[in-house]
Amino acid sequence: EAKARGVPTQAMPRTAAAATEEGSFVNETHEKKGETSRSGGATNATKTKSNVSGADASRMTSPFDFFQTDASPESLVALVLDMTDPGRWYPAARAMRRSIHLHVGPTNSGKTHAAVQRLKRADSGVYCSPLRLLAWEVAEGLNADPEGLGLTCDLVTGQERKVIEGSRHVACTVEMADVRKPIDVAVIDEAHLLGDPARGYAFTRAVLGLPAAELHLCGDPAMVPLIETIASELGDSLVVHRYERLQPLRVLSEPLRRVEDVKPGDCLVAFSRKAVHRLKKDVETQAGRRACVIYGSLPPEARARQAELFNDRANSGYDVLIASDAIGMGLNLSIKRVVFTTLKKYDGSHLRALAPPEAKQIAGRAGRFGMGASEGGATTMRRDELRSLRDAVNAPVVDLTKASVAPTLDQIALFLEADLNKNVSLADALVLFKRDAVVPKHYFARSCDDMIAAARLVQHLPLTLEDHWMFAVAPCSAEDLQGFGSKALVTFAEAFCKRGRVSVRIVQHPFLFGENETKTKTKKPKPKPKPRAPRTQGELSVLEQAHAAYDLYLWFSLRCPAAFPEHDYAQALRKQCAAAIELGLQRTTSAKLRRDAKRLAGYVDDARLTNAAKETARLEAELALLGFGAADDPDGVYGTVTFAPGGPGVVAQAARAKKTPERAERTSREARKKKRAREDKEKTSSPGKRFSQSEKARRANARGASSATRAAGQSGSDASGSSLVSDAESAPPLLAFPLAAAERAERAEIAAAKRTAALARVARGYDADFAAPLVSRRVAAETLRREALLGSIARLAGIGEKGNEEESRGTT
After folding, report:
1. Nearest C-alpha neighbor of 174 from the set 156, 154, 153
2. Ramachandran category for residue 145: left, alpha or beta (phi over 0 → left; psi -120 to 50 → alpha)
3. Which positions of the chain have pLDDT values less than 50?
4. Of 195, 397, 511, 670, which residue has the fewest beta carbons closer than 10 angstroms?
5. pLDDT tens track for 504-553
6. What is the SS3 assignment for 394?
């Protein structure tokens, strides 16, 4: 049943050889149960393996072939929690002696190209990618077959499956790798991600379990010592191929300084969706250049299209790329210069500096070999960050020390079967695995927080273990209770249990807005709104969330098609979302660029969106004829998964504001208090003066009187509304000799302009002191000159405590 639903398992039929050995293994495990610990797990695993005659004999051992009726529950629980030898979970790979080829080097060094070329020459093979985009790119390249080798390649991702009859090659995401079917060559791209806390377990599973005669691992040199250790334990041979960058990468000596100075081929990097769109607006309005955008929540189709437009900028008219760290892998981009707008990113919990590997990965996208640039350059927007970027790019490689492992469905099933406490749920079992599993020192157990959160969301439903596991491993953000992912997961699971059939109409249709929509109070049905491109960032965000929700439905549909039967309809809605997003990204804030857009090859009209809407309407009509139309909703769940403009963070922020109505008033009081403190500091920081206690008291009384006057409504304005006495004029003089009124007004105007500019820059995602460095230096130099002049006059006149001290010192 699990295999029919596509749930990954590693269970294998028991062999006769394994049956003769299982008794001794279980007994030995039972005797060593008290000795096994986290620190001594590796030693015990070595002793157990040494009792088997030869490495080849150990390869025939299946990890779950030791279950027998007379085995005690305690020994079985200890066996399942014993993860000191993860390689034994994959008997197909252990039954063959593999040759591991490690391709390591920096970005743009040709390591992946060399591995894919070997894949092309093999009779059968698989390419495992960290991203759908990479899997699509490799599948399309192999199917194009420019060398005439007669290759065909299947595409298998979590949401899509394209099978070509007779194909012996597969391009897939790493989570979809088949660890049972023997092949000639396997390629795992970005294999150094096996140490990633979130997805590393999938890469470890592929490295340990792919039954390939040749296993090619591509990635960072940091993984070499760890792979050497793993290969030695598995008994596989290892060959290391080292690569150098094909074109040089250097950190430039000058920052970009201003957005107006961007050039064709530049890529500006920011680390939030909001900052990316702000930069797009600035580039188009200030620099007069069209800009593509790439960020994580953008659908893969839209990302691929944006990359295509940027690479063909000579014809498309898109000169600049604005991107997040999503460009670090997965796309071939003809970038000449990477510009970091900041070297800090928010990782979900706090704002932190970029790690050297992250900075290297992003900066290395510049100067792609064979894409029009002779070298790559990287720089920042601020001069004081250039040194940090240079240090990060030139930082030595830090070796990986641990790989991530996670329990499989088979292990969970055996654990729940053997556990004496039958009330343990799937979420509890995952917690126990994290707490009690024994792993070697070069592995670490995945925390599984996302799986635990998802499992707890649906544990109130009568689900089988396989179905519960399917919902627990679904790709959605179950930890964010305010997000649409949690709502979709629970609603899908409830419909799955109650009706056995889940409709994609549970997701609210995102095309309910339209120009021809009429708002009438009559009972006549409203005309169906015409699909159109998003006009605001909020509408664009809604489409991105809807696309992700349809992705989730397609993921379930591929694993349980009987319960999620509307695969084609969901695919049509997904394509309609992608077409609308692509059309919305084409919109620009510059009127001139809008007028010139239709003459460019990169212009996209609404024909694709219209065709996608027609296909969606056709499938809707077919479902209605089958009795599954919009009105056929006995449980009233259609449209219950909704989206908030701006994402779930906006909903959470609104909820917090609603719970604390006094927040705005408290924030306003704090702002006024900080403003007064800042003004006092600016006034008291001028050289050549030190106010006495009486002077400070007089100023405080004057400020209090002014506040009382304003509170009483005595604004001091004449009939025309103009102010009779300003705060600056009513305040006591800053120095013993008053400044000219024009000079005070000029200072106040400059300070106000600087504060406004700083707030605007922060709102755009920049640092507060970004931009206008020349103006800042000019103002600082003018201030120093003026303060030096005033200080000299004060000392000559003997004014203030400083002058009296110097006079007394001279007399002495």
Report:
1. 156
2. left
3. 1-70, 512-521, 649-661, 686-694, 705-739, 767-772, 774, 801-812
4. 670
5. 999 988 764 444 344 444 555 555 667 788 888 888 888 999 999 999 99
6. coil
Phi-psi sector, 377: left (phi>0), alpha (psi -120 to 50), beta: beta
Beta strand pairing call for 318-323 and 290-294: parallel
Tell me the residue type at 278: R
DSSP, collapsed to helix, strand or coil, labels residue 636 as coil
DSSP category for residue 458:
S
Q: Residue 643: CB partners within 8 Å, gap ≥ 6?
A: 484, 508, 510, 541, 542, 545, 546, 549
- 606 Ramachandran zone, left/alpha/beta (phi>0; psi -120 to 50): alpha
Distance from C-alpha of 279 to C-alpha of 269, rounded to nearest angstrom: 9
Beta bridge partners of 25: none
Instruction: Give ∠ CA 429-430-431 in degrees, rounded to 5.
Output: 90
The residues pairing with 478 across neighbouring beta strands, listed in sequence order, are none
Q: Write down the H helix ranges in 327-446.
A: 356-363, 386-393, 409-418, 426-436
List the one residue out of 79, 59, 52 whose CA is nearest residue 67: 79
Q: Could you give the 3-state DSSP secondary structure of residue 758?
A: helix
Cα-Cα-Cα-Cα dihedral of 83, 85, 88, 94, to 10°?
A: 160
Residue type at 106 in one-letter notation: P
* Three state DSSP letters for 56-91: HHHHCCCCCCCCCCCCCHHHHHHHHHECCCHHHHCH
**Residues found in the chain:** 812
Radius of gyration of the chain (CA): 33
* Structure tokens belonging to residue 478: 């179950």
- The number of angstroms, rounded, from the C-alpha of 495 to the middle of its chain's C-alpha atoms is 30
Q: What's the pLDDT tens digit per position in 162-196?
A: 999 989 999 999 999 999 999 999 999 999 999 99
Number of helices (H), then strands (E), belonging to the chain: the values are: 30, 18
The DSSP bridge partners found for residue 102 are 217, 240
